[in-house]
Amino acid sequence: MASAASDAAPVLEPEPPRRGPAEEEEDEEQPAVTAAELELAAELAALRSADARRLVLSPRRLSGPLPAGLSQWFPALEVLDVSGTGLAELGAELLALPQLHTLLAKNNRLGGPGSLPKGLGQAPLGRSLRVLNLSGNRFAEVPPALLELHGLQSLSLGGNRLHSIPPEIQELRSLEFLYLGGNFITSIPPELANLPFLNYLVLCDNKIQSIPPQLARLHSLRSLSLHNNLLTYLPREILNLVHLEELSLRGNPLVVRFVRDLTYNPPSLQELAGRTIKTRNVPYTPSDLPENLVRYLSLASNCPNPKCGGVYFDSCVRQIKFVDFCGKYRLPLMHYLCSPECSSPCSSASQSSTSQSESDSEDEASVAARRMQKVLLG
Known about the structure:
Elements: H1 2-6, H2 21-29, H3 35-47, E1 54-56, H4 70-73, E2 79-81, E3 102-104, H5 124-128, E4 131-133, E5 154-156, E6 177-179, E7 200-202, E8 223-225, E9 234-235, E10 246-248, H6 253-256, H7 269-279, H8 291-297, E11 301-302, E12 311-312, E13 317-325, E14 329-337, H9 355-360, H10 362-371, E15 374-376
Parallel strand pairs: 1-2, 2-3, 3-4, 4-5, 5-6, 6-7, 7-8, 8-10, 9-14, 10-15
Antiparallel strand pairs: 11-12, 13-14
């Protein structure tokens, strides 16, 4: 009998209840949590502190997007470094960090659509951020969202793919440090001169061909890095940068060759008449002339040649004048004269080292020697 009982059919365990299609679909929609994300959550939980002020997320810790609970875990965070983690976007998790003043996100994959969170300028982060480093990413243009960070003091976008500097850069009125080296920038907008507190301007390793004379209004500027560009001359207004201590120019054509062929467009009849009025001090009042001519006459520029008392408006001779810096280097500065007849007192580039050119630049050389403490030409 026992043998018969043992040969009976085995008892089957009850099958688990069947899951409906809706439950199975819900499971498929939930993303799987990776081991790296679990590890990051555990590390952040261990680091979590109500008064934690600095957080560095290394590539070992962060292999995906920023964790969603960042602002709840670190409400007092002031410095966040996510450099080299391969991030393709900085998510909305950052916007709720009201005390974050330094964000370092170098050497990532930022630059595509959605790289920066929406509403950055209006968020608490937009008001608190002072230092932003996005160097070594893939930005082809300066993101408009950055131009809304009016409290920003330091901005680094070196080693990206920028081809231009937007005129709206002037909106960053608090900016003291601007690093745009290692891009493909071809020109500098005059609006850059409207940054009253800018101390350090780095534009090296680009494709810049000329410097706008308006940069002479950057009276706080102490360091100007222009090496490895395509500059053939500098505007003479650069001597007005009274606080400039460092000027880096190595690797530019102006160091090894100079502009030789300069053209001159004859003045128009209007300019000839305007020159006559200004040089002969012909009296006039606003009621004597149309408003546009009165405004035109107010735009006259004095010829810098000390042996010429002429003026010019739109037509002038662009010429290179050599000026000594620190008694060691001779740099070609752009010089504007009222006519070709004025070129004899100021030797042109084709007569680059004549004694006349040297004598003409003595006064400017002494001024430059006091102001330029360090000139880097190689």
